[in-house]
Design goal:
Strand order of the largest sheet: 3-4-5-2-1-6
Order of helices and strands: HEEHEEEHHE
CATH superfamily: Beta Polymerase, domain 2
CATH topology: Beta Polymerase, domain 2
Structural class: alpha+beta
Distance between the termini: 25 Å
Shape: globular
CATH class: Alpha Beta
Largest sheet: 6 strands, mixed
Strand content: 25-35%
Oligomer: single chain
Helix content: 25-40%
Radius of gyration: 13 Å
């Protein structure tokens, strides 16, 4: 079993779903949320998405940061924004990863956390 769960069977917190929606609003691809609560003490959820270029990766990440901040959800830490290959946005309870496709393929977070229940988001 690959851990993928249909939407009615698995619910994610509003902020996690909102981050995924914001990524899709900037045309992110392959957006998925992972429920890590039973697998990790570092964070509860990952949101993972891809941009087609460094510029798009930065644009997706900046959009998520700005819109969530406007909604009162502030990130604790951001890494990789200037390079645009892999941007990590830490919200403590959840972490957003926005990847350039080659970086996503290299790190394979979905495979690393393959036992985590997943919810895929589509535009």
């Amino acid at each position: 079993m690959d851990g993928t769960v249909s939407p009615p069977a698995l619910e994610f917190p509003t902020e996690v779903a909102r981050a995924a929606e914001l990524a899709l609003a900037r045309k992110a691809t392959d957006v998925v949320a992972l429920d890590l609560r039973n697998l990790s003490t570092a964070t509860d959820y990952f949101v993972i998405g891809s941009g087609a270029s460094d510029v798009q990766v930065r644009s997706i990440a900046e959009h998520i940061i700005e819109e969530l901040e406007a909604e009162g959800v502030r990130s604790d830490h951001v890494e990789g924004l200037s390079a645009g290959r892999w941007v990590l946005i830490d919200y403590f309870d959840f972490v957003v990863h926005v990847f350039h496709p080659s970086a996503r393929q290299f790190y394979q977070l979905e495979l690393l956390w393959g036992d985590a229940p997943q919810l895929r988001f589509e535009a």
